[in-house]
Amino acid sequence: MSMHDSITALIMAALAGTFNLAAAAPENLSGDLSVHDPSRIVRCGEDYWLFATGNGILSRHSKDLAHWEAGPRIFTNRPAWTTQAVPGFRGHCWAPDVIRLGDRFGVYFSVSTWGSQTSAIGLVTNPTLDPADPAYGWTDHGIVIRSSPEDNFNAIDPAIFRDRDNSLWMAFGSFWSGIKLVQLNPTTGLRIALDSPITALAWKSAIEAPALTRHGDFYYLFVNWDQCCRGTNSTYNIRVGRSITIHGPYLDRDGLELLTGGGSLVLKTEGRYIGPGHVSFVTHEKREFMAHHYYDGERGGATTLGLRPLYWDEEGWPTIALPQKP
């Protein structure tokens, strides 16, 4: 979709009163948008919160999804297990995700070093995300899952999904044999059993950053293809497939399995918005939005938060283009 089409779609939707224009156009977001690998966006009190890659895990908060401010880092001192599990780790946590676990918020995060398969996904919880609340305080719950060179997967990029029956799942993975799925205990947030099954969901030679959502009768698996973290040279692009069960098989629009390299394009580089990736979802005023990061070509490739309205076409596929009415 061209920039002209994007603006036209935004204006049409704004005139229809379907969402806040300022919150829908990436270029109209303001404040501290220096975000890489944004988590799911959750509501706590009057604010929306997200977490992102960074030393100690970064946080951002907003009252309207349009203007964002920096919040506190989760860790000032990283848990001791992180350096024990991953020698060489220095506190730069990757790709967190957040979800409510009963009366607490759980933040999952990746511990690894660049290009390594010695990795772990950890969990911390907090009864509130508001640092001014007297109850505020993070509790470390240790490792959810880990990987080593003896495994065929890489335990990073957690994406947490709660199904309609309250079952809790985590998709994860980067490169190697691709994207995996494990079930979590919906109360503790930890793996349901240490030896619980690991299901393969998607593969490509360069794949990571999964995200799961459900719409109608289908589960949708979003993934990233190609290379991140290269500024304006990044080639990240967002792909999707769907399945009638959470375990798959996930098929793209052409019926190709994501396990064998299939994946329908959702979003790629367009103009200043280079290498979009690491999607998550939020509902605001009854509208669905897709959050992601991109490398801003007008700011030297700076990692930047993007937020776009998410639509569903007549065949039930996700799109960022405003569907055409008959």
Question: What's this, in brief?
Answer:
The chain is mainly β.
Per-chain topology:
Layout: H1 3-15, H2 21-24, E1 30-31, E2 42-44, E3 47-52, E4 54-55, E5 58-62, E6 67-70, H3 80-85, E7 92-101, E8 104-111, E9 119-126, E10 139-147, E11 159-162, E12 168-172, E13 179-184, E14 199-202, E15 207-215, E16 218-225, E17 237-243, E18 264-267, E19 273-284, E20 287-296, E21 302-309, E22 311-312, E23 318-319
Parallel strand pairs: 1-6
Antiparallel strand pairs: 2-3, 3-5, 4-7, 5-6, 7-8, 8-9, 9-10, 11-12, 12-13, 13-14, 15-16, 16-17, 17-18, 19-20, 20-21, 22-23
Overall number of strands = 23
CATH superfamily: Glycosyl hydrolase domain, family 43
Shape: globular
Going by CATH, the architecture would be: 5 Propeller
Using only C-alpha atoms, the radius of gyration works out to 19 Å
CATH top level class name: Mainly Beta
Estimated structural class? mainly beta
Strand content: 35-45%
Terminal-residue CA separation? 19 Å
Overall average residue pLDDT? 90
Low-confidence segments, given as residue ranges, are 1-24
Q: Assign a percent range to the helix content.
A: under 10%
Looking at the chains present, what oligomeric state does this protein adopt?
single chain
The structural domain count equals: 1
Largest sheet: 5 strands, mixed
Number of helices: 3
Series of secondary-structure elements, N-terminal to C-terminal = HHEEEEEEHEEEEEEEEEEEEEEEEE
Strand order of the largest sheet: 1-6-5-3-2
| CATH fold topology | Tachylectin-2, Chain A
